[in-house]
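Table S7 (text form). Paired inputs.
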Amino acid sequence: MDLDSKKDAKRLKQIMITDDEWDLIADLTEVLSTFADATEDLGGSKYVTNSMRTPMLMEIIKTVTTDLANNQDSDEEEDDAFENNDAEEGQDSTQNSKINEPINTFGLLDEVKSKLYKNIKKYYPTLFTESLIPSILDPRFKKLDFSPEAQKIETKRHLQELFNNEKRPKEIEKEWHPLSKP
């Protein structure tokens, strides 16, 4: 073993991760994997993925939904997990000195899920009928199993309405320009 490896091994032995921290890491990995899967599926695709967007968002919302996220008042100040926090940036030097101290993981997973949930709701405030039209037309998602029953019914009704609106002008045009019979 070279000298650098020995130094690294010595430093890593000083960092002790508690069982609670390992459990939190495993839980966070599971939650964040839904985001990674969606990013990979939507980003690495060579075909149209619009019909996949809403089912994936619904799956992510199911993953990050907690009792805490559902019960919070909409009047609360909304945190944006994607905004920079200057106070946190100044703590980098103090973070290194606390690396050996165990953290209190109680409620941390729910807090992370809650912040992710709020940000999804902020960037996608409604997953309404119009956004489900591509999904209902895609054979993989046409049953809309990921959606509530009332939303399925409304989406089917809306699709029928769109179809009828497209069909009507064609029927009127045929009435005005009937084909002559030989």
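Next pair, protein 2 of 2.
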Amino acid sequence: MSTDRNIFSNDFGPNTQIHQGDIHYYSSNASRKAFFVLPLPPNEDIIRRPEIDTQLEELLLPSKAGRYCSLALWGLGGSGKTQIALDYAYRRSAEDPACDIFWVHADDETSFAQDYHSIARKLGVDSKLNGEEMFLEVRNRIELQKNWLLILDNADDVTCFGVGAEDHTNNLLKFIPRGPGGTVLWTSRDKQIVALSGWRRGIEIPHMAIEEAEKLFLMARDKDIQENEIQDARLLLQELQWLPLAISQAGSFMRRTSTPIRKYLSRLLKGKSRWDTLMKTQHDKHRRPEVSNSILETWNISIRHIGQESHMAYKILHTIAYFDNQNIPLSAILAISACFDESSQETTSIEDVLETVIVRLQEFSFISARKAENDAEPIFDMHKLVQDAIRYTLNTRYPVIERCFSGTALIALTRLFPEEVRQETWPLCQKYATHAIQVTNYQEDTFDDVIIASDLLRRVAEYFKACGFLKKAEDTAKKELRLAKKELKLVTKISATKTPITAEVFNTHRLPIAIAMARLSEIYRSQGLFEEAEKYALEMVAFSEMILGEKHSGTALLTTLLIKAYCCQGQFKKAEELQKKQLLILEEILGEKHPNSIIAMSNLALIYDEQKLYDKAKRLKVQALAFSSEIFGERHSATIDLIGCLAKTYRLARQLKEAKGLETRILTLRQQSQWEEHPKIHDLDKLVEAYVQHGQFGEAKDLQKRILLLQQNSLGEKHLDTVQAMQTLSTIHYRHGSFFYSIV
């Protein structure tokens, strides 16, 4: 068929150019149905997160004006990135039906290729094309579209797209479309994804806000929270770290099994039943079926990425999984690094730890930095559920490696926690105490670890007791006792199955039990739980007699705790008999002038005071005072204390003249001592007491102010001893008639 192209006449002017040809009409994009490649249905139950939605809309606004736009959502696995991206895709489609929408699973090259093949079929790409040719054709076809959105989900291995990769031959970034009217939305667990979108074009997806978490829980459970369930529900959400995946799984399980909130929470708070509970998964149509819904498995891929990039980061991550999840100091992370350096004979600098290890763990949202004040040491929190996941994987699949990481955590904290608990070491003790307790929860399998853990708990219990945290001290000492008994059990097992152990070695491993019992007795007495104090003191004395013998000085000294327990309960006759026995043993073994014998003599006199047997008390105190003066000298604080002790007996016996004479003698001796150069608060307290007894309130006030200042500087405003010093100063002011100035 021919076409007539003749022009018989025209009105075109000069220099007119005419192009002859057939006219073809192409329909506009608006007249065709938009391409729509989404693998998941819309989530009708999605809980809106207004703050994130607002950021998303603002940062992607240019794309609606026909300009290319890129954005990355990054955050911990299970935080809701995919659901946010999916929701945005459906909202974008509803707002603009002509917008072409494509979804690619970007986990790795395989999933990327599979989804590009699916898009290729939708776009009508020649099926004969494969590999890079097909990828490039898909990119070109998408770029030709007027208005499009491409979502690359789970781009967790950013090296696939060239970020941090040494080999760029397989870089998939060259296949990602660009062009006017296009939007690329990335989701990843790795913060480095923002290198692809632009550093200012990334949104971190944190855990849900409390109100959002509550709404999700209500929706997943499909049941209102009753008034008596509110507190349990809040605790449950806190335990689940307000993480969307964990909340939806818990709510769905409770809905399906009709499990009450309290019952589910109790399972979650108990050891291995916690793991059993977290492992339970419910089908979720809004998640890919090949991806685990289990909280304990969802981070495995990210953890493997860490291991491939940095062995040290991987080791540190697995070691701090055994710490408490909050307030992990940088010094602890450096100590762990040093432990691994020793085993590998390598050296990791502080800069490497800060710039490589900590940064990468933060980029995967496994740890987060807390705000440090001024030049304070950096501290970090680790996600609690990530800790669970790591411990679960090691315990169930790699028990030998588990002992390596938990053991390293124990060694690091043993090195960091002060050997001696003194006031000047309290800040260090406070920094590491919670972590020390947590780490010892996992040390019950190997003999060496049990011994180390028991000793670490001893130090922690001493710290809590010294600070007046008596309930914490009690709980820690109980754990110490349990591990001490475990130590003896393991020794017995070794002796029975391997090498026989001598009685002397056995006794060495029995001694920690007696020491732990002694500590518990002291702690219970300090709490006013005298029957419990007596119970542990009795056990401790019996154990000591078995180890050391009845007539050993160590056994004799340990009976002091039982004597104190009897006295606290008013059982002075029992206390007297036991104190007499102790005194005889000490005099026989150590001699009557030994300091321990003098103390035992003085203690027996105090028991006589309580029974109003003042003559017996005076005779013993006079003898003890004579021995102390001979051994230590008259100006020694121990001798001065004994003078005060004797003065007290005279006062109790109404022999006030003798008492006054001794108190005057004390005042003279204390004024002559060198406390100005080497002040001991205990000695100063005694001098204040002496001033008050003699009505010298002005001197007492001045000295008590000095004591208060010392306590404030060394212990802090809120310490029990500081508060007591303040109360003493108030009392002196009140007795001196200046009550209204007592706080000054």
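The longest helix spans residues 470-497.
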